[in-house]
Amino acid sequence: MKQKICLLGATGSIGSSTLDVIEKHSDQFELVSVAANSSVERMAEICRQFLPQRAVMGSEKARDALAKLCHGLPIQFEWGSEAMEDIASDDACDQVMASIMGFAGLRPTLAAIRSGKRVLLANKESLVTAGRLFMDEVAKHNVVLMPIDSEHNAIYQCLPQTKQGAIKRDVDKILLTASGGPFREFSMEQMCAVTPAQACAHPNWTMGQKISVDSASLMNKGLELIEACWLFDVTPDQVQVVVHPESIIHSMVSYKDGSVIAQMGNPDMKIPIAYGMTWPKRVETDVPPLDLFSVSQLNFEAPDIKRFPNLRLAKEAWFMGGTAMATLNASNEVAVAAFLNKQISFLDIARINEKVLERSEISVVNELGAVFDADFEARSMALRVIDTETK
Ligand SMILES: NC(=O)C1=CN([C@@H]2O[C@H](COP(=O)(O)OP(=O)(O)OC[C@H]3O[C@@H](n4cnc5c(N)ncnc54)[C@H](OP(=O)(O)O)[C@@H]3O)[C@@H](O)[C@H]2O)C=CC1
Ligand SMILES: CC(=O)[C@@H](O)[C@H](O)COP(=O)(O)O
Ligand SMILES: [Mn+2]
To answer: Could you read off the pLDDT of 180-213 as tens digits, one per residue?
Structure first.
């Protein structure tokens, strides 16, 4: 029986790598539903090639445009967040790739969890913002949650495996690798004037714009630190961020006997995606095998939180607890969008995040509404800060 896949964020970078894996292993996988926001032409190509049963867009206008481009295809065209939740929980699928960018991915990812699907989690923002509630739902519905983020997938691979999944046993600490991004060696003065194009030019990975900017500001590592804490039930004190500019080691687990187990490979998301889709088995990918002679050297250094304060802010948000992580994430999403629109400078991103985190009221998260309220408030505050500072 083929595994039936629902692909949320089909038109993005993770979406595209997932489609490559599905295509290469079409004897094992079938794409049954897809969702994206507004990239109608790319979605039309996907629909023509894979003929999913259902395709959902972010707006009615985008849905209508897609339906027009795909006229005659036996596909149900829909729009809106409820339809996204519906395809993610539909009986027609077995696995959901959660690869919508940002907080917008939270509701459909939770819908997938609540309906017991295998969840392939790329959308780190949903776990970072909803944290404990998210993990409680995973436990309640006995869901296989496969981390797709390369570092977390690596950590998962480095842990002892059971039929239920990886377990944390005899672990001393997690070594979370970071490339350091395109500005690893830049001074503050140099970072003042960097452009969105420079920030999006990641040295090792080809990714969407938002996560690329996050990598450049080290917010990606901050989000990943929180992500690791929720996924592997550790605190930031048990996670050491290690800058490793080559992105060959994707993370490591250090055990109490002094052993360190690392997962390595060429930096290509098809590896963690295929692993998540086929676990506990492995399948071939078209990623070239790692040639250590051509890599030649692996380097390591400590992160510099003075130049990259977002990493510190993420750690602080974890210790503040409650809605602090949703607040920081929302501020960052707004600030990154403003940077990409050339409204603010690169260094303003962390400044805005710090102000919003400092000024926001942090509350306990007893139910999902608290997360959505914090997200809304922090977005409004971030926009106000940007508005005042750019006048
Ligand atoms: N790219 C990578 O290598 C990695 C990515 N991740 C995570 O995976 C997620 C996706 O990243 P990436 O693929 O790079 O991002 P992209 O920007 O390339 O793609 C984002 C996808 O999400 C869709 N989308 C955005 N907003 C909405 C919305 N409101 N409703 C529905 N769909 C929406 C986009 O649709 P449209 O095209 O129509 O806008 C697109 O399909 C992020 O959370 C990121 O942190 C994690 C590890 C690695
Ligand atoms: C591919 C992936 O998982 C990204 O999150 C990547 O790790 C970004 O790299 P850095 O944030 O380490 O620069
Ligand atoms: Mn990552």
So the answer is: 999 999 999 999 999 999 999 999 999 999 999 9
Separation of 114 CA from ligand 3 center, angstroms? 25
**Chain segment 37-61, per-residue pLDDT in tens:** 999 999 999 999 999 999 999 999 9
Query: Which ligand has the minimum distance to the alpha carbon of residue 215?
Result: 2
Convert the chain into a string of H (helix), E (strand) and C (coil). Answer: CCEEEEEECCCCHHHHHHHHHHHHCCCCEEEEEEECCCCHHHHHHHHHHHCCCEEEECCHHHHHHHHHHCCCCCCEEEECHHHHHHHHHCCCCCEEEECCCCHHHHHHHHHHHHCCCEEEECCHHHHHHHHHHHHHHHHHCCCCEEECCHHHHHHHHHCCEECCEECCCCEEEEEEEECCCCCCCCCHHHHHCCCHHHHHCCCCCCCCHHHHHHHHHCHHHHHHHHHHHHHHCCCHHHEEEEECCCCCEEEEEEECCCCEEEEECCCCCHHHHHHHHHCCCCCCCCCCCCCHHHHCCCCCECCCCCCCHHHHHHHHHHHHCCCHHHHHHHHHHHHHHHHHCCCCCHHHHHHHHHHHHHHCCCCCCCCHHHHHHHHHHHHHHHHHHHHHHCC
The arithmetic mean of pLDDT across residues 255-274, rounded, is 98
Could you tell me the distance, in angstroms and rounded to a whole number, from the CA of residue 250 to the centre of ligand 3? 8
- The ligand that comes nearest to the alpha carbon of residue 124 is 1
Q: Which pLDDT value is given to residue 389? A: 85
- Domain 321-391, CATH among 3.30.70.20, 3.30.365.10, 1.10.1740.10, 3.40.50.2300: 1.10.1740.10
pLDDT in the model for residue 391: 78
Reported CATH class of domain 3-143: alpha beta
